[in-house]
């Protein structure tokens, strides 16, 4: 308890400095002498509730933030089980448990109070205190002697008292024993802070369109939906020999050969439309070609193909063979390639001719003798085989392998190098059942339409490519749209929605931020029925502005390279702007503390996947060649995502940040996302990232790295304005003490902000 007192004292001192109050001014506010106030700030004695109440009011925060360092989050209801209230020592002999710690904007403060009987107190005058509002006390056990402005009452079990707490009042345990009572401190005037929740705008739930009579997925996937088509349960069967190439692409080609699989558009405007029959035939030719080069089941093949259509042909072909596909970004240079070739044991590389990619890979290959096959697309290079010319010379039929070459659902199929925050990237390995796990991704999150066209912005070097433009979409027999661009320009993308009749769309928040900076009224977006967002947490401001412009609610989704979609605003749900959504029924998702125990509603913890009931379809099988890293992340039947969140009373998850991103300043635990959401409301802020910087007094201080909108230029005045805006719109201790303006934020290829890179930048 002594440690808690010191932490509270530290918070009080820090907040007083932030709001610019002197010790004397705060002493007057709290109704104590300057000496008493200084002792309180130094943590030399326990605080009365009245003192804490007045401090919190002066600082413009709720009392829970002083007590715990956490922000109250719940707005519907809060349940506290017996003995689980937040403890607080008021003064000697009194122990308080706050019974509604995580409920925000309270009109009352409920406490379970245990008053210890002290014989010496019985003959002394009861110390009195005052605070605004009213108070209600109900005796649960024992007896309580209460003094109200000179009037003394003895209360027994079952008795209650209600009084104006602005008059002097105090109490002690009486009649020879300890007393336990319920105390409810009420703010009669309703002065509960200025927090305003972004309310979801009501709109009719979208309906399913053009469902297929008998989908190819039904042999492997069974779902239970409610009457509105929302997913309730999902299970999988016949997965032992599942192969996406044969069981999805070829099956659709047999069933509906002329059905559009992909509309591809090149940077120069070249268009190519591929049917499922085309994809089946071309992937068969590529499979025969790869086999002729000695590529076989289990071989590791890297694809560096940007958004070229050859990616789809090649990956399906390699699935049919049973080779292991390793997609990679074209941003890699020699050292990156060398590490990946050696770590994964890459034996073949299929690479774009664009830019310097092939040259960098060639330099790396000189130190990697295991890499024996180099192929290039969209061009020619000495020492490289020309994929485009050669593969079409091979037969367009390919039989499903048998015997030793038979491909099983449990075999490795796909490996991704993760974008880890420290050290070399890990290799997340998935088996051949992984595509099935993305049925939920496409059907219930993207809400793709069998007769529609789905556009996911991602590059094939990122895992989101197979999330948004391959597995789930084709399992749903929907067509995908691919624009093979190099740099994102919103005015280049926006006209395509109308031109190609795109119906569903998914992109990271960065893209939507650029969209809403444009005059969207100039563009016809009427073909769009549904939009989703992933890669970074969704700021409510982006949600609200996009909704204002389009009438479409952005449906956020969350997952990792190691998984498929795990938490999301799925079809049929009403999104809460800023919330990640609810757990995907495909997984057993929980939020736990550092002991692996489920946290209470409103309490922050780490998102984990529970695997005690078996390995979920869609989850990785291991970090390739790294059992230690695998065990570090996945042990005791818990897979640790490293992402922090809290759960509200409706079961929605709210993102806080990575475990490494959490800021601990003056005893407060501050999630960067909550500050970023406030910053995004400021007219000057285009993008931002909040990180911690070392601070000799506070341990860590909050830093905001900001990209400005076109109308603003960096200045000290603007820094102050942004800082004051945060102080006014959230708790003052959360404001960024350090503000840096930059031209752009460092990002991964997936569009995620690299906060680790910002943290490593010297101030």
Describe the protein.
Helices cover 26% and strands 27% of the residues. By secondary structure, the protein is α/β, with parallel strands linked by helices. Helix 6 packs antiparallel against helix 7 and helix 9 packs across helix 10 (357-365). It contains 22 helices and 38 strands. The strands form nine sheets. Strands 13-12-22-21-23-24-25-26-27 form a nine-stranded mixed β-sheet. A six-stranded antiparallel β-sheet has the order 1-2-3-9-4-7, with no helix packed on it. It is elongated. The longest helix is centred in the N-terminal third of the chain and has 18 residues, at 2-19. Mean pLDDT is 90; it is low at 190-205. Among the domains are: 1-84, lambda repressor-like DNA-binding domains (434 Repressor (Amino-terminal Domain), Orthogonal Bundle), CATH 1.10.260.40; 107-191, Jelly Rolls (Sandwich); 660-760, GMP Synthetase, Chain A, domain 3, CATH 3.30.300.30.
> N-to-C terminal Cα separation, in Å?
36 Å
Give the spatial strand order of the biggest sheet. Answer: 13-12-22-21-23-24-25-26-27
CATH superfamily of the domain at 660-760: ANL, C-terminal domain
Shape: elongated
Structural class: alpha/beta
Name the CATH architecture of the domain at 660-760. Answer: 2-Layer Sandwich
Oligomer category: single chain
How many beta-strand segments? 38
The average pLDDT value, as a whole number, equals 90
